[in-house]
Amino acid sequence: MTLADLRIIFLGTPDFAVASLDALVQAGCTIVGVVTAPDKPAGRGMNLTESAVKKYAVSKGLNVLQPEKLKNPLFLEELKALKADVQVVVAFRMLPVVVWDMPPMGTINVHGSLLPQYRGAAPINWAVINGEKVTGVTTFKLQHAIDTGDILLQTPIPIGENETAGELHDRMMLVGASTLVDTIKGLLDGSIVAKRQEEVIPSTVYRLPFTDEGQPIVVDGNLLAENALKHAPKIFTETCQIDWNQSKESIHNKIRGLSPYPAAFTFINEKKLKIFACTKEIATHNIVVGTISTDNKTYLKFSCKDGYIYVTDLQLEGKKRMPVEEFLRGFRL
Hints:
With 333 residues, this protein is an alpha+beta fold. The chain has helices at residues 15-26, 52-59, 73-81, 97-100, 123-129, 165-189, 237-240, 248-257, 324-329; strands at residues 7-12, 30-35, 40-42, 47-49, 64-65, 86-90, 107-111, 134-141, 151-158, 218-219, 222-223, 264-268, 271-282, 292-294, 300-304, 307-316, 322-323. The longest helix is centred in the middle third of the chain and has 25 residues, at 165-189.
């Protein structure tokens, strides 16, 4: 079977998914259906807005399905009638078994981490927040438990010291698209063999609780157990508030890990201040953490337990996002 012979149903909604769909189209794959979110009202006029994936699919003349409910019998019949060999899901909602188990080759998911690390809804954000130096993209077969299916292909991606989650997202979008196409090709020519996640755990980021000799593994005086796996749960508002009692490194990582959305924040003059970018300074001081200092011209900094965080890109509640110099021209502390 060739790429052109393979019948694919693609499921996705945001811009991140468009890159993967386009890569499949450019590779010559036959996309028999595109499933995406229903049009939703947005903006001041609350006009119906199409998803990024729908806009792309329509521009390419692809068959678009927009079910409100994925278990709707009419939708399931329509899906079955497309006779897909395989389904691909990128940045879409959770699928019921009746959907992901339908095609003979199963359903392939593109996930923004090197599984089994960072299973969950926000893998890109949490990798940056936790100060990881490397993350990656994983293609895997969907199974019942979230992000636990057999791994097909993985591509590592280095994370820059000052790189934001938004910047990493944009790079990962392209890497993920390329990895997906390589996965489809590998499945067709037999060069890819699915592996259980337990078989591909990198020793550099995960260690089993016991050595080959049956002894517990101890790192820096602490027992290293199976909870060494890191997770990527949904991010809530309380996750985004900055704790100035933390180290400059932790705060710096949180700010870039939540930039540009939903954005780390603190309060200034009882108004929420979102911080999108910053630099850090090592310093020993006896200033109360969270204290604000500024020259009212070029810098605005907050004290933390081992130094200072200099804000460089910010947005005060009720104002637009701007560089710190512009902000200080109209603000006095």
